[in-house]
Amino acid sequence: MSAPAEPATGGMPRQAVLFILFTVLLDAMGIGLIVPVMPDLIREVNGGSIANAALWGGVLSTSFAVMQFLFGPILGGLSDRFGRRPVLLLSLIVMAADYLVMAVAGSIWLLLAGRLVGGVTAATQSTASAYMADISAPEDKAANFGLIGAAFGLGFVLGPLLGGLLAGYGTRAPFYAAAGLATLNAAFGWFVLKETVTDRIRRSFSWKRANPLGTLKVLGKLPGIAPLLWVYFLYQVAFTAYPAVWSYFTTERFGWSPATIGLSLALFGISMAVVQGGLIRVVLRFLGERGTVIYGHIFDVVVFLAIGFVTSGTLMLILTPIAAIAGVITPALQGIMSRAVADDQQGELQGALTSMMALATIVSPMLMTSVFAVFSAETAAIYQPGAPFVLSALLMLVALSVFLRARWS
Fold it and tell me: Angle at which helices 387-405 and 346-376 pack, to 10 degrees?
């Protein structure tokens, strides 16, 4: 599965970039594509009530995030040693096989095994980001990371939409579709993806470093990186308030129907894709990477507070696409950190970021739903369903304070 190593020179190879973006799109779609059918599928293979299905759904989602957390650095480290191409292509092949297994699964334990494997294959976002770093000029890294964020945002929208449409053909249809997409993308990558890891930047693989704690320890010793990693984590915890409590919050506060909730999420996802795929280049041109991160945090504090206290459903819908403007933070942070580490640590860095995002996905839902439950209960001393978003605003203030104190080379 190897190809001659050809470091990119000049402009970025368009077909390879398209492959990378579609790989990230599949990672995001893989999460949302099966969401519409999971309640029915779990009851189909395991029986029981919808409440019991919800409990198993939580187990499946958490197991997926845990595997992403554990394997992000491993896949990133393997790509630093053996190359981005074999890691990406092999992951897609395994992903396709995994979806086929889940499509025919007859027990809840096989579904759980499928989600565990799926979490590993979805951890390739770290390798995809490392490939983008390899082929980008230093001054273009932040903007090009924005393309990856845009692809992920688009997948966030298309996944549930396509899954809902395919659900009409049965609970297994979305899995067959996902397997087909992964197979087609692997075939496309086989022909267009050139290796970017050369002997100059190849780094030996170490199990001591290829784990979340080991990776963070190594990277944390680099000048200024440790505080930036904390900023990234705090941002992810704050941001995860959206998927964690959005449906509960908007139902409680505005009485929105599932259709309206879906529309608002699609609107937010599309807006994020526009911001990270295009608008960020304008912002970076005027503010630079550091200024973009500062602006994004300030903007997010205002937005989270507005969401926390707004009482009009119409105003909330208007505010939804505006909230996505703060999406410039992640690619700008990635750009700063990518330029601060050596070429042979790009996979390691992106693996660490994937793990921190997965850890936030594990921690934040429990935190945010607990805060929501406390402040929306009938017996609540202070009734404030938007409290999770107020907490997110406070987390953003802490992250901004850490960022302003950070110094990097």
Answer: 150
Distance CA 409, CA 407 (A): 7
Q: How far apart (Å, rounded) are the C-alpha atoms in residues 24 and 184?
A: 14
What pTM, to 2 d.p., does this model score?
A: 0.70
Class of domain 13-194: mainly alpha
Q: Which CATH architecture has domain 215-409?
A: Up-down Bundle (1.20)
Residue ranges of domains in the chain: 13-194, 215-409
With 0-12 / 13-18 / 19 or more C-beta atoms within 10 angstroms meaning exposed / middle / buried, residue 84 is: buried
Per-residue model confidence as pLDDT tens digits over 108-167: 999 999 989 988 887 777 788 888 888 888 878 877 888 887 887 788 778 777 877 787
DSSP β-bridge partners for residue 5: 195
pLDDT the model gives residue 96: 92
Counting every residue written for the chain, the total comes to: 409
Amino acid at 187: A
Q: How far is CA 81 from the centre of its chain?
A: 24
pLDDT (tens digit per residue) in 326-337: 888 988 888 888
One-character DSSP codes across 93-130: HHHHHHHHHHHH--SHHHHHHHHHHHHHHHTTHHHHHH
Cβ–Cβ < 8 Å for 44, 174: no
What are the structure tokens assigned to 391, written together?
Answer: 């907490």
Q: Round the CA-based radius of gyration of the chain to a whole number and report it.
A: 21
Q: Do 19 and 209 form a contact (C-beta atoms < 8 A)?
A: no
Cβ–Cβ under 8 Å, residues 346 and 134: yes
